[in-house]
Amino acid sequence: MTESTRSTEPQQADMPEWEKRFRAPRVSLPDWAEDAPHRSLFVSNATGTYELYAWDRATGEQRQVTHRANGTTDGVLSPDGEWIWWFDDKDGDEFGVWRRRPFGAELVVGDVDDPAVPGLDPSYPAGLAIGRDGRTSVVGRSTDEDGSTIHVARAGDATVEIYRHRESAGVGDLSHDGSLIAVEHTEHGDAMHSALKVLRPDGSAVAELDDTEGGTVELGLEVLGFAPVDGDSRLLIGHQRRGRWEPLVWDVATGEQTDLGLDLPGDVAAEWYPDGSALLIAHSFEARSDLWRYDLASGELTRVPTPPGTVSGATARPDGTVEYLWSSAAEPSTVRSTTGEIVLDPPGQKSPGSVPVEDVWVEGPGGRVHALIQKPADATGPLPTVFEIHGGPTWHDSDSFAAGPAAWVDHGYAVVRVNYRGSTGYGRAWTDALKHRVGLIELEDIAAVRAWAVTSGLADPDRLILTGGSWGGYLTLLGVGTQPDAWALGIAAVPVADYVTAYHDEMEALKAMDRTLLGGTPEEVPERFEASSPLTYVDAVKVPVYISAGVNDPRCPIRQIDNYVTRLAAREAVHEVYRYDAGHGSLVVDERIKQVRLELDFAERHLGK
Questions:
Q1: Measured distance CA(503)–CA(557) in Å, rounded
Q2: Which CA distances in Å does 203 have to 181, 252, 481?
Q3: H or E segment at 263?
Q4: How many whole angstroms separate alpha carbon 579 and alpha carbon 581?
Q5: pLDDT value, residue 441
Q6: Model's pTM, two decimal places?
Q7: Torsion sign over Cα 508, 510, 516, 521
């Protein structure tokens, strides 16, 4: 696979609207260096492949700093602004090493940056924190052989391992003065709900926090960041003690916990303002989000103005302004500032918009299910309808811009996105509900929304497509097997297809998650893996199935997909498979467009409109 060249691309005037959305220049929310805030790092697809870019705000210069055939998105800017760290894997397999380059260095295609921490073997990444002293880093790693390990590296000294455990763990943060390291871990065996440790750089323990409800049910904790002040031992964390995510301030030296008690519905996260006097609150509720400022001294909560829609990331700058990445289903993403300005406006053709979403609430077997509906303007049903199922499963669809659903709408389809049990943003009980009956519970909620879509007149029951990527691809294959009369087509991207083989081949952190979801390994609970595996129901599939898969995917590995496809082929079931040279999805724009075009073509050939 090679990087796209502009000379071979069709002219913008000749492109369909859906393709323009994929080709339009996009940027991520810029990270900025704590001690050099004029230096930033962001991701862009300006060359046709998603890569890292350095931005010197003082001069306005923006430079591409990585160049790989399959793209690069994992990067960190050191607090002093002198170094860019980036993760180097092989063709999307997520197994590799951190490399680094000087912020001001010119990119020379073909040159290879030095390893950031010499002596550390390749691994899956498990968190990274870089010290303000310019020579200290804390690196989290995960491998099948070692489990999770955390290492402290100082320039000129030998790297020291300070943590090791078979269960998943990772680096949360390094304190402002470098004296404290926060670690998220799942030593208790519940990979959905982390506990916390705070260690010194020599590995000695400072404090621990492990939340339970009634002494038995694990509640999640997450590291949100140390206070940005030297000598300050306050750690901002997220907790689930009231059935949703909320922030509190934990002084790890004294043990004191300050619960903010914010009167906001839905999930709440936070990060520090740069002077440590206030918190920037990110509030998510019913598929939308907004921002607030919380003053720690007065307890005053003040709204930060943002348009209706979804804030995908936000950061407070030293001057008190807030920069945020915003979009809605109808309007493409932009990086904005509370000054009213657009922070990053990449050159080139702007992305066309799409249609807004409508909210629907449907009574399901486990409670009300929230669905987001898009359909062509002025269209009347019943319409061919695509159920686009999100991945995760601990994720959710929101009122945010997505080029994939917009492409289906352009082609005359209604699109339904379902925040099934397992989704985030609707409380801990909703997220945790899918344990043991994995996949089957989500499909119950999807079936309830399907019934509404048909009875309401929106959807044509003979032209219903079930599709999704990752966990959504898994639910697609499971759905066409367990609900064979409900769907006309199944289109699955990078799916779990054979759960037992997937478990044995996937990266270690996902093994831990599957043990949590299903209550053990395939050898310990074979009946649960069998009940939740699409391979169990493959002979019941009646409809044409399309599958796309990355041959280097460590999350939904290729062997288990081949097992499923072999079973389809053995009984001459209608199916098509597309394999591509990348991991869990592609960072190359041409490749993404090719995959969408193949999906649209498959639907047109087998379903028509």
A1: 9
A2: 9, 15, 50
A3: none
A4: 7
A5: 97
A6: 0.95
A7: negative
* Close Cβ partners of 145 (under 8 Å, ≥ 6 residues apart): none
Closest CA to 73 of 54, 90, 86, 91: 86
CA 126, CA 142: separation in Å to the nearest integer?
A: 6
Take residue 294 and report the two structure tokens written for it.
């919380």
Among 219, 172, 162, smallest CA distance to 193 is for 219
Output phi, psi for 226, to 5 deg.
Answer: -75, 155
Helix axes 471-482, 440-455, angle to 10 degrees: 70
Specify whether the CB–CB gap between 389 and 468 falls below 8 A. yes
Q: How many Cβ atoms from other residues are within 10 Å of residue 82's Cβ? A: 16
DSSP E strand boundaries for 241-320: 246-251, 257-259, 267-272, 278-285, 288-295, 301-304, 310-316
Q: Give residue 156's pLDDT.
A: 86
Token pair of 368, please? Answer: 């009300």
Are the beta carbons of 480 and 545 closer than 8 angstroms? yes
Signed CA dihedral, 68, 71, 74, 80: sign only: positive
Res 7: pLDDT: 33
Would you state the pLDDT for residue 582?
95
Give average pLDDT by consecutive 10-residue segment, the chain, 609 residues: 34 83 97 98 97 97 96 98 97 96 93 94 97 95 96 94 97 97 96 96 97 83 97 97 96 96 94 97 96 97 97 97 98 97 90 97 97 95 96 95 98 98 94 94 98 98 98 98 98 98 96 95 98 98 98 96 98 97 96 98 88
* CA 508 to the chain's CA centroid: 18
Using alpha carbons, select from 179, 299, 296 the residue that is nearest to residue 232: 179
* C-beta separation of 144 from 162 below 8 A: no
Q: Are 51 and 589 in contact (CB under 8 A)?
A: no
Task: Say how far apart CA 56 and CA 6 lie, in whole Å.
Answer: 26
